[in-house]
Specification:
Strand 3 (about 120-125) and strand 4 (about 125-130) form a beta hairpin. By secondary structure, the protein is of the alpha+beta class. It has helices at about 5-15, 20-35, 55-65, 85-100, 140-155, 190-205, 215-225, 230-250, 250-275, 285-310, 315-345, 350-380, 385-405, 410-430, 450-465, 485-500, 510-520, 535-540, 570-585, 600-635, 635-655, 665-680, 690-710, 720-745, 750-775, 785-815, and strands at about 70-80, 105-110, 120-125, 125-130, 170-175, 210-215, 470-475, 505-510, 560-565, 595-600.
Length: about 850
């Protein structure tokens, strides 16, 4: 069955059973509303980990013994004076107890001056004495407070659990991934709220400030800020409704695409719940993006129907004709949207993969609601002569604009447009090459700089030598390596090397503690602050270091190197990980193996490397899929076979099981790209694809350039935007070129075919670009920085992609379409 026959069969099946179609959609929508009632926010720490990455393999292997990156730090700050006051100590003790009993807290990991795992050592006449920093018999008397002060000075916790100026103290803990009481995934949002209610609100006073940082607080603050999305959706819905009404000039016709888009969102949320998924705070904007996509495609269907009504057809005939004309380009456009979402599934981070699933479900539903339900509903909307008169008047008003824009299809103005495009390509390549991977600013970039969390983070990092930003390198050696001088020396040498790396604030290792203890056994002499070569002396120096310090495991075969960083900027992370790799390569031996990495900075470094590795495969995948769809749709069968068969073979070689991610794959990727571009340039009927793809590639480059200028890093929250922008942006080109090609085949020349395209589809494309742009532009006002960045980038990509399809696409077509189309007969007068 040919595609034309299939479309006619589908058309008859749908429109001959309109009431049945509406009833089925209504029943399905009610079912999806029932499922959507169970939708919940699903945040998890491991969801953000690239679990297949080398660093994360180390992290997961040692997480249970040495803790992970899911740390919470609570700082109590004395507004006046220092921490050695009865009021402060009472607050610190009670806060420690409250933290200990919070749900999901890994209780052995809780550390503060009042926990028994915080100890000091000192040199006494008989050798070494040790004890709890806050003794069991502590009383908040002047003598007791002075005793604690002396113990703090003897310990190595100044700068770690006690501020460098004694103005604050920290309670540190790790959170579990699952609630031990229920066995369910830990509710990080609930923990965040409990931290505020039971710690911040309870202990903040005129004398004490409370500051809290950690993953749970990040998720909680993001979720709280994401609730504003409802406001943005209402505002965007109202603006979109007004724009649709202005475009259609009919209330009834405006309601149809809005209803279909809302149905698509309801189905998307219902399907998510039915499949057992929740919605991640980082992906909470996806349903509203799906709504905007639904409206944009719905407007194309409405625009096509209006053109048929303008020509005198009835509502039913106009709906059938719009379905017939847009079934293929609409399906291709929505398929390209889906591909844009699916390709981000390549990033092996569960949160991103769930976002891809969420978005793909939404677009898949739009194929049903916009290509089936919408034209069926539209067939019931009746129009009188008054409405037709409005359409005639609007067409007359817009005709001068379309005539001016159509002039770009002549080769002389087309050459100017192409020249401007080349300049923009150069600018995009120049600035886009400077794109950075990861975070570019201090604090949590998902939140605004003036957010409570980032203020808390700034206070803690300014008063302590540590913060929540820590990267831990796991040093592995033979059993009992802590009494092996060569192994201990290698770790100490590595620590010294890393201390001098820019961005490393402080380093803590077992050998560093052992040197201090060795000095203590020798009357505190600084000359003895070295690693003893004698096994017995070395054993004496490490025997008092307990495994609860996190500096060694039970058999002393693993000794973590804790490095606290000044920040988690991408440049800092790169410098540190590169330094570790350089040290490993320059001191390759069998004594100690240094493995990257645990700690939250280790997670960030792994994520950044995953994003960097995925960015080009994702874009190549998106563009390759779009090229394939366009070749199949717009090129001849011969051109399609010549282009796609060898491309499929090369693609199979690229993704074949057992092929290592080596130079071979890179060569295959380059060969695949060059071959397909060569086919598009050489084969006349395939050149049409370049008219669609080139503007898309230009906008992608300009988006990278914009990110560089605005200092927005390429990371988990922004990489999907680039792929989504490409997938959605191609819709404009597909709708424009499909109508343009149709008029060319009817015998019109290039200029007149484009003029006719503008009159029928141009207004819809311009309106769609503006509507999508305005819809996501509301996100720029979000209290969440990552939502604002997404809104800014998507607004740019939607609007500039629209301009590219209106201005650059016809300019390219005037030079790329076969010469015969320049000599066809002119379009008939109205």
């Amino acid at each position: 069955m040919s595609s034309f026959s299939f479309i006619r069969f589908s058309e008859n099946l749908i429109f001959n059973n309109r009431k049945v179609v509406i009833a089925l959609f209504a029943i399905a929508t009610v079912v999806m509303i029932w499922f959507a009632r169970g939708l919940h926010v699903d945040a998890g720490f491991t969801k953000m980990l690239p679990t297949q990455h080398e660093y994360m393999q180390t992290y997961l292997e040692h997480q249970e013994r040495f803790g992970g990156a899911n740390t919470v730090l609570i700082a109590l700050v004395a507004k006046d004076g220092d921490i050695f006051s009865p009021e402060f100590m009472e607050a610190l003790k009670n806060a420690t107890d409250d933290v200990f009993f919070l749900p999901g807290v890994d209780r052995p990991s809780v550390s503060s001056l009042f926990t028994p795992n915080v100890r000091y050592t000192e040199v006494v006449e008989d050798g070494i004495a040790a004890g709890n920093v806050v003794p069991a018999d502590f009383q908040p008397t002047p003598e007791g407070l002075e005793r604690v002060r002396n113990n703090v000075l003897k310990s190595n916790y100044v700068g770690r659990l006690v501020a460098n100026d004694f103005s604050a103290a920290i309670i540190s803990t790790q959170l579990l991934e699952f609630d031990p009481n229920t066995g369910e995934p830990l509710d990080f949002v609930g923990v965040s709220h409990l931290l505020d209610e039971t710690i911040r609100e309870k202990y903040a006073s005129d004398e004490i400030d409370v500051h809290i940082i950690g993953f749970a607080k990040v998720i909680g603050d993001i979720t709280d800020g994401a609730q504003m999305v409802i406001v943005f959706f209402i505002v965007a819905f109202i603006i979109t409704a007004l724009l649709v009404w202005l475009y259609t000039q009919s209330v009834k016709l405006s309601i149809v695409p809005l209803v279909c888009s809302v149905v698509a969102v309801v189905w998307q949320l219902g399907l998510l719940t039915a499949m057992g998924f929740g919605i991640d705070p980082m992906g909470i904007l996806v349903p509203f993006l799906v709504f905007a996509i639904g409206v944009s495609h719905g407007v194309q269907m409405v625009s096509a129907a209006r053109a048929e009504i303008f020509d005198g057809l009835s509502s039913l005939e106009a709906a059938r004709m719009s379905f017939r004309k847009l079934a293929i380009p609409g399906s291709i456009a929505l398929a390209s949207d889906t591909i844009g979402f699916i390709t981000i599934y390549m990033i092996e981070i569960r949160m991103i993969q769930e976002m891809a699933i969420t978005a793909s479900l939404g677009v898949a539903v739009i194929i049903l609601t916009n290509l089936i339900l919408l034209p069926v509903l539209m067939s019931y909307v009746t129009f009188g002569e008054e409405y037709k008169a409005k359409l005639i008047k609007r067409a007359a008003q817009l005709r001068p604009l379309w005539e001016k824009l159509a002039g770009i299809a002549y080769r002389k103005p087309a050459s100017i447009a192409i020249g401007i495009g080349l300049v923009l390509f150069a600018i995009g390549f120049w600035k886009g090459a400077g794109i950075k991977i990861g975070d570019l600013h201090e604090g949590v970039p998902e939140l605004r700089a003036n957010s409570v969390y980032n203020i808390d983070s700034g206070v803690i990092t300014s008063r302590f030598s540590i913060g929540v930003d820590i990267i831990t390198v796991i040093a592995e050696a033979e059993s009992q390596a802590c009494v092996d001088y060569d192994a201990m020396y290698r770790i100490d040498d590595f620590a010294g090397y890393m201390t001098n790396v820019e961005g490393v604030q402080s380093v803590v290792t077992l050998p560093m503690v052992a040197k201090r203890i060795n000095s203590g056994w020798n009357e505190g002499s600084m000359k003895w602050r070295v690693l003893p070569r004698n096994v017995d002396s070395l054993s004496q120096s490490v025997s008092s270091v307990e495994t609860t310090t996190g500096l060694l495991n039970d058999d002393c075969s693993v000794m973590p190197v804790l490095m606290f960083t000044e920040d988690h900027k991408a440049s800092t992370l790169t410098r540190i990980t590169d330094a570790v790799k350089t040290y490993r390569s320059e001191t390759d031996d069998d004594v100690v193996t240094f493995r990257l990495a645990t700690g939250n900075v280790g997670v960030m470094a792994a994520t950044n490397e995953e994003v960097q590795a995925a960015q080009f495969p994702i874009l190549i995948g998106v563009f390759a899929a779009i090229i394939v769809l366009c070749v199949v749709t717009f090129a001849s069968r011969r051109a399609a076979l010549i282009t796609l068969v060898p491309a499929a073979i090369l693609a199979f070689m690229h993704f074949a099981p057992g092929v290592e991610a080596s130079g071979f794959r890179q060569y295959v990727s380059i060969a695949l790209g060059l071959y397909m571009i060569g086919c598009l340039v050489v084969l006349p009927t395939a050149r049409s694809v370049l008219c669609i793809v080139i503007p898309l590639a230009l906008v992608s480059l300009l988006a990278y350039a914009l990110m560089t200028v605005l200092e927005i890093g390429l990371k988990v929250s922004t990489l999907p935007v680039v792929a989504l922008g490409v997938g959605i942006g191609v819709d404009y080109g597909i709708y424009i070129y499909s109508r343009f090609q149709g008029f060319l085949r009817e015998g019109l020349n290039v200029h007149d075919a484009y003029f006719a395209t503008l009159r029928t589809t141009g207004a819809g494309v311009v309106f769609t670009g503006v509507t999508l742009g305005i819809g996501v532009a509301t996100w720029i006002m979000s209290p969440l920085k990552f939502q604002a960045d997404m809104g800014l980038l998507l607004t740019f990509m939607f609007l500039v992609n629209m301009l590219g399809s209106i201005l650059l696409l016809p300019a390219l077509a005037s030079w790329l379409v076969p010469e015969k189309y320049h000599h066809a007969h002119p379009v008939a007068n109205d």
